[in-house]
């Protein structure tokens, strides 16, 4: 392929691949309520509302999640729902905006994966095959639509960039830490569990490298420096996370039996061979390539061999062969789903498969190479389309259409049409994540709080909030000396109320206000503490300094000014 056509043809191919992965589900006209769909759509709605109010983000949910000030934005970073939020602002039709956002997400994932492999001094062909096998994989579709876990999905997108940056640091003495910094920062701001899983793996690999590199400390300094810069860029998030976590007893996410979600080896094999996206697996193409590779006597180079070994280890950790039932106490509540390791394994498997396939094609005559490459591209598109079509048929059942006639969300197996989807954010939130990140003491009063039951001088009363620009407004008539226990979660964080009102925390873990004067309504606003403001300043300064140094190294000062 001529160089001038390579980029536009690759972009068109990626657009086509993104389309066939999303269109079969879009044409049904429904949103399929994946395990975490309402949770992440609500996060996106909260972020979109914050944008409308002129803010860059949010910490406490005031316009969704039952309007009780749940600290979703504190403990779950918002980068992973940024695209969803933008399209919610652009389109009032939630079905259309969601599928458009997923289409763009898949396309960006393909581009980022392509860039990550190119940075390893691999060719465009290797990068294109890797991106197609990885982003076009069955596990990607499974996470996207069966789980609808946007945090995990964006972690899948950024993991190749993190690993590429890590390899660059230890493989090339002159390499910069740019890709590693961007990748690890983006991963932290997408999905905390994936961040710690990947970072733990990198630390283990770094220790292993120490035994084989005489100049190890030179590379170790770069690795640590990259990590510190990434933490500086994300200080605005993790400093508040740590502060709120340490000053409160947080309920955390639901504790589950991880062994129940470990994959059966036989199921992985058969489902991969069937190339189904209904379950977690590695897909037919990678399975067949892996079988061929493991039966070959050819030696792998160091990078391919290391990637394959790491992938096999991650496959083992994702399966029931690992004794999850015995480590549930120590790892289960954090990892939750062992299938997460499968997504990490896919990076290495797709990389080795892409490297081997591209090497095979590079030895062929130009015309044969072009024909074979075109056939491979078509095959990848068709397998992705087939997998997405099967998934849409599996999810699109006629007896699960949800109606908006009741005030409580139905079971997670339901699907939403355009009309029903309009009511998602205004109804009581009863899906996965309902009590995530609540103060522990508030859980036993949860049903009252989500129904907006408060108390005035100890007498229960319904206090329905009205969202305002920076908080919530409550219509409540108080005399001097009255106390009102609002259905608003208290995290001991900064609260702004009108003069003459004293704020404390009630026995329910909610905001308790004592009035020193008669009032007819109360507006409660969240405010950033001095620590939060300083963290924001640190993040901005570190990011600007990092960008300046990168530009200086790449272009020189004369090109900057």
TrEMBL record:
Keywords: Membrane, Transmembrane, Transmembrane helix. Signal peptide: none annotated. The chain crosses the membrane at residues 7-26, 68-91, 98-117, 123-145, 152-171, 183-211, 223-246, 278-295, 307-325, 337-358, 533-551. This is Uncharacterized protein. It comes from Lacticaseibacillus pantheris DSM 15945 = JCM 12539 = NBRC 106106.
């Amino acid at each position: 392929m001529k160089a001038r056509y390579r980029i536009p043809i690759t972009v068109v191919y990626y657009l086509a691949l993104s389309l066939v992965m999303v269109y079969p589900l879009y044409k049904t006209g429904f949103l399929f309520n994946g395990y975490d769909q309402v949770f992440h759509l609500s996060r996106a709605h909260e972020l979109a509302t914050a944008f409308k109010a002129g803010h860059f983000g949010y910490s406490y949910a005031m316009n969704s999640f039952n309007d009780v000030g749940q600290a979703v934005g504190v403990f779950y970073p918002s980068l992973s729902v940024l695209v969803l939020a933008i399209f919610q602002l652009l389109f009032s039709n939630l079905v259309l905006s969601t599928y458009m956002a997923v289409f763009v997400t898949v396309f960006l994932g393909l581009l980022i994966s392509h860039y990550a492999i190119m940075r390893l001094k691999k060719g465009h062909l290797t990068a294109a095959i890797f991106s197609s096998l990885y982003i076009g994989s069955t596990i990607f579709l499974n996470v996207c639509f069966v789980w609808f876990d946007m945090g995990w999905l964006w972690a899948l997108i950024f993991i190749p960039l993190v690993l590429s940056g890590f390899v660059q640091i230890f493989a090339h003495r002159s390499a910069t830490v740019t890709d590693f910094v961007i990748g690890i920062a983006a991963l932290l701001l997408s999905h905390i569990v994936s961040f710690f899983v990947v970072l733990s793996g990198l630390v283990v690999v770094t220790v292993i490298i120490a035994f084989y590199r005489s100049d190890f400390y030179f590379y170790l300094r770069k690795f640590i420096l990259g990590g510190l810069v990434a933490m500086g860029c994300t200080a605005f998030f993790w400093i508040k996370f740590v502060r709120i976590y340490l000053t409160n007893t947080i309920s955390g996410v639901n504790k589950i039996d991880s062994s129940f979600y470990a994959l059966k080896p036989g199921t992985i094999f058969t489902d991969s061979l069937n190339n189904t996206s209904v379950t977690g697996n590695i897909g037919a193409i990678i399975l067949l390539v892996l079988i061929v590779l493991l039966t070959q006597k050819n030696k792998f180079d160091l990078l391919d061999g290391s990637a394959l070994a790491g992938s096999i280890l991650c496959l083992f950790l994702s399966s029931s062969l690992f004794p999850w039932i015995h480590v549930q106490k120590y790892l289960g509540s954090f990892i939750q789903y062992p299938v997460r390791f499968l997504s990490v394994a896919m990076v290495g498997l797709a990389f080795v498969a892409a490297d081997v396939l591209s090497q095979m094609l590079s030895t062929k005559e130009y015309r044969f190479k072009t024909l074979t490459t075109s056939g491979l591209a078509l095959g990848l598109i068709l397998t992705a389309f087939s997998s997405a079509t099967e998934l849409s048929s599996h999810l699109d059942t006629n007896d699960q259409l949800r109606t908006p006639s009741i005030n409580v969300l139905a079971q997670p197996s339901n699907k939403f049409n355009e009309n029903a989807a309009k009511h998602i954010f205004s109804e009581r939130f009863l899906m996965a994540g309902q009590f995530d990140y609540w103060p522990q003491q508030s859980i036993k009063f949860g049903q009252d709080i989500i129904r907006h039951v408060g108390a005035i001088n100890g007498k229960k009363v319904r206090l329905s909030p009205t969202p305002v620009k920076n908080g919530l407004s409550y219509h409540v008539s108080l005399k001097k000396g009255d106390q009102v226990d609002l259905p608003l979660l208290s995290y001991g964080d900064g609260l702004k109320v009108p003069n003459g009102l004293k704020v404390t925390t009630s026995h329910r873990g909610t905001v308790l206000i004592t009035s020193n004067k008669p009032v007819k309504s109360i507006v409660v606003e969240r405010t950033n503490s001095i620590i939060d403001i300083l963290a924001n300043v640190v993040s901005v300064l570190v990011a600007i300094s990092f960008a300046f140094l990168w530009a200086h190294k790449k272009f020189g000062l004369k090109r900057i000014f």
